[in-house]
Design a protein that fits this description.
This protein is an alpha/beta fold and 138 residues long. Helices cover 32% and strands 18% of the residues. Helix 2 runs parallel beside helix 3.
Length: 138
Protein backbone atom coordinates (compact mmCIF):
# COMPACT_ATOMS: atom_id res chain seq x y z
CA UNK A 1 0.00 0.00 0.00
CA UNK A 2 2.40 2.63 -1.17
CA UNK A 3 1.52 6.22 -1.60
CA UNK A 4 3.69 8.89 -3.09
CA UNK A 5 3.94 11.82 -0.69
CA UNK A 6 7.31 13.32 -1.48
CA UNK A 7 7.99 15.56 -4.44
CA UNK A 8 11.23 13.97 -5.64
CA UNK A 9 9.69 10.65 -6.71
CA UNK A 10 7.28 12.26 -9.17
CA UNK A 11 3.55 12.40 -9.26
CA UNK A 12 1.26 9.42 -9.14
CA UNK A 13 0.10 8.47 -12.65
CA UNK A 14 -2.51 5.81 -11.91
CA UNK A 15 -6.13 6.44 -12.87
CA UNK A 16 -8.79 5.76 -10.30
CA UNK A 17 -11.33 3.64 -12.23
CA UNK A 18 -13.80 3.14 -9.38
CA UNK A 19 -15.99 6.16 -10.29
CA UNK A 20 -15.95 5.09 -13.95
CA UNK A 21 -17.09 1.58 -13.03
CA UNK A 22 -19.85 3.02 -10.82
CA UNK A 23 -21.15 5.21 -13.65
CA UNK A 24 -21.05 2.33 -16.14
CA UNK A 25 -22.99 0.04 -13.79
CA UNK A 26 -25.66 2.69 -13.25
CA UNK A 27 -25.97 3.18 -17.03
CA UNK A 28 -26.20 -0.57 -17.56
CA UNK A 29 -29.03 -0.85 -15.04
CA UNK A 30 -30.88 2.09 -16.61
CA UNK A 31 -30.64 0.53 -20.08
CA UNK A 32 -31.72 -2.88 -18.78
CA UNK A 33 -34.83 -1.36 -17.22
CA UNK A 34 -35.82 0.93 -20.11
CA UNK A 35 -35.12 -1.34 -23.11
CA UNK A 36 -38.20 -3.61 -22.68
CA UNK A 37 -40.40 -0.52 -22.41
CA UNK A 38 -39.18 0.80 -25.75
CA UNK A 39 -40.32 -2.21 -27.80
CA UNK A 40 -44.07 -1.67 -27.54
CA UNK A 41 -44.61 -1.26 -31.28
CA UNK A 42 -47.65 0.09 -33.09
CA UNK A 43 -50.72 0.43 -30.82
CA UNK A 44 -53.48 -2.05 -31.76
CA UNK A 45 -56.31 -3.71 -29.86
CA UNK A 46 -55.46 -7.37 -30.14
CA UNK A 47 -58.11 -10.09 -30.36
CA UNK A 48 -58.49 -12.33 -27.33
CA UNK A 49 -57.79 -16.06 -27.17
CA UNK A 50 -58.22 -18.58 -24.37
CA UNK A 51 -54.72 -20.00 -24.63
CA UNK A 52 -51.36 -18.61 -25.65
CA UNK A 53 -48.96 -21.29 -26.85
CA UNK A 54 -46.23 -19.90 -29.09
CA UNK A 55 -42.88 -21.62 -29.29
CA UNK A 56 -41.16 -18.95 -31.38
CA UNK A 57 -38.61 -16.51 -29.94
CA UNK A 58 -40.09 -13.01 -30.27
CA UNK A 59 -36.70 -11.30 -29.97
CA UNK A 60 -35.40 -13.08 -33.09
CA UNK A 61 -38.59 -12.69 -35.13
CA UNK A 62 -40.19 -9.88 -37.05
CA UNK A 63 -43.50 -8.33 -36.08
CA UNK A 64 -45.91 -7.49 -38.89
CA UNK A 65 -48.74 -5.23 -37.70
CA UNK A 66 -52.08 -4.41 -39.34
CA UNK A 67 -53.79 -1.40 -37.77
CA UNK A 68 -57.51 -0.69 -37.62
CA UNK A 69 -57.38 1.56 -40.68
CA UNK A 70 -55.55 -1.10 -42.74
CA UNK A 71 -52.03 0.31 -42.52
CA UNK A 72 -49.28 -2.32 -42.51
CA UNK A 73 -46.03 -2.10 -40.57
CA UNK A 74 -42.99 -4.37 -40.58
CA UNK A 75 -41.57 -3.90 -37.10
CA UNK A 76 -42.14 -0.12 -36.77
CA UNK A 77 -41.69 0.82 -40.44
CA UNK A 78 -44.86 1.61 -42.43
CA UNK A 79 -45.12 -0.35 -45.68
CA UNK A 80 -47.55 0.58 -48.50
CA UNK A 81 -49.93 -2.28 -49.25
CA UNK A 82 -48.88 -2.47 -52.89
CA UNK A 83 -45.18 -2.76 -51.89
CA UNK A 84 -45.69 -5.39 -49.15
CA UNK A 85 -44.83 -8.43 -51.29
CA UNK A 86 -41.66 -6.75 -52.58
CA UNK A 87 -40.56 -5.79 -49.05
CA UNK A 88 -41.25 -9.30 -47.72
CA UNK A 89 -39.23 -10.85 -50.56
CA UNK A 90 -36.41 -8.37 -50.01
CA UNK A 91 -36.27 -9.00 -46.26
CA UNK A 92 -36.99 -12.73 -46.08
CA UNK A 93 -36.51 -14.20 -49.53
CA UNK A 94 -33.23 -15.98 -48.78
CA UNK A 95 -33.50 -16.67 -45.04
CA UNK A 96 -33.38 -20.29 -43.89
CA UNK A 97 -35.62 -19.70 -40.84
CA UNK A 98 -38.62 -17.61 -41.64
CA UNK A 99 -40.76 -16.65 -38.67
CA UNK A 100 -43.07 -13.67 -38.31
CA UNK A 101 -45.51 -12.57 -35.63
CA UNK A 102 -48.73 -11.13 -37.06
CA UNK A 103 -50.41 -8.49 -34.90
CA UNK A 104 -53.79 -7.51 -36.26
CA UNK A 105 -56.19 -5.10 -34.64
CA UNK A 106 -59.39 -6.90 -33.63
CA UNK A 107 -61.43 -4.43 -35.69
CA UNK A 108 -59.50 -4.92 -38.95
CA UNK A 109 -61.41 -6.62 -41.76
CA UNK A 110 -60.88 -10.35 -42.10
CA UNK A 111 -60.04 -9.95 -45.78
CA UNK A 112 -57.05 -7.73 -44.91
CA UNK A 113 -55.60 -10.39 -42.62
CA UNK A 114 -56.13 -13.11 -45.24
CA UNK A 115 -54.46 -10.91 -47.88
CA UNK A 116 -51.38 -10.45 -45.69
CA UNK A 117 -51.27 -14.15 -44.76
CA UNK A 118 -51.51 -15.08 -48.46
CA UNK A 119 -48.60 -12.78 -49.32
CA UNK A 120 -46.50 -14.25 -46.51
CA UNK A 121 -47.19 -17.77 -47.77
CA UNK A 122 -46.37 -16.71 -51.33
CA UNK A 123 -43.00 -15.33 -50.19
CA UNK A 124 -42.23 -18.51 -48.24
CA UNK A 125 -42.69 -17.41 -44.64
CA UNK A 126 -43.47 -20.74 -43.00
CA UNK A 127 -43.70 -19.86 -39.30
CA UNK A 128 -46.43 -17.33 -38.54
CA UNK A 129 -47.51 -16.61 -34.99
CA UNK A 130 -50.78 -14.78 -34.35
CA UNK A 131 -50.37 -12.35 -31.45
CA UNK A 132 -53.40 -12.18 -29.16
CA UNK A 133 -54.32 -11.08 -25.66
CA UNK A 134 -55.16 -13.66 -23.03
CA UNK A 135 -58.93 -14.13 -22.65
CA UNK A 136 -59.86 -13.44 -19.03
CA UNK A 137 -63.43 -14.73 -19.26
CA UNK A 138 -66.75 -12.96 -18.57
Amino acid sequence: MGMSVGGDKGSMSEINVTPLVDVMLVLLIIFMVTTPMMSQGIPVQLPQAAKQAIDMNIEESTILTITRDGKIYIDDRPIPKDKLEFQLRRLYGDLAVRSVFLRGDRRVEYGEVVYVLDLMKKVGLTKVGMVTELYEGP
